[in-house]
């Protein structure tokens, strides 16, 4: 049974609003899915999910349903971008094997899937923003 995750769904909406995909986009269904069971792993994934959701919420609130404002809103909120990138980097330092995977976890009645290759695509898209020099981008 396929479950729909709100952060994952919002993520794809956000990609459509902010910019086109790279020339060879990674699709979530093309990645290996790892099902998390250890409490510590779930906490790490949930922390990353929360930082990404916070970034999305900030930009979505700023755009006020005006997609043409998405680039400006991202540049007005580089702190939330940097928090998300930092969380992504820390998570991969602890779990390097997740870099090419989608991790899936359940916590109570909720759950999530986090497609790491797609998050990396999103991070790389920040390089094209006019404010890229204010973003703590990982080296390529």
Describe the structure.
Strand 2 (101-107) and strand 3 (110-115) form a beta hairpin. This protein has a three-stranded mixed sheet with strand order 1-2-3. The protein is built from five helices and three strands. It is 51% helix and 12% strand. The protein is globular, with a radius of gyration of 15 Å. The longest helix has 25 residues, at 39-63. The relative contact order is 0.20. It has a domain at 39-132.
Give the key terms.
single chain; 140 residues; alpha+beta; three-stranded mixed sheet; 5 helices; 3 strands; globular; disordered N terminus
- Extended strand count: 3
Strand content: 5-15%
CA-based gyration radius: 15 Å
Distance between the termini: 36 Å
Regions with pLDDT < 50 over 5+ consecutive residues? 1-23
Mean pLDDT: 83
The best one-word shape is: globular
- Helical/strand content category: alpha+beta
Number of helices: 5
Indicate the percent of residues in helices. Answer: 40-55%
Give the biggest beta sheet: 3 strands, mixed
Strand order, largest beta sheet:
1-2-3
- The H-and-E topology, N to C, reads as HEHHHEEH
List the helices and strands and how they pair.
Elements: H1 6-18, E1 32-35, H2 39-63, H3 70-76, H4 78-94, E2 101-107, E3 110-115, H5 116-125
Parallel strand pairs: 1-2
Antiparallel strand pairs: 2-3
Helix pairs in contact: 1-2, 2-4
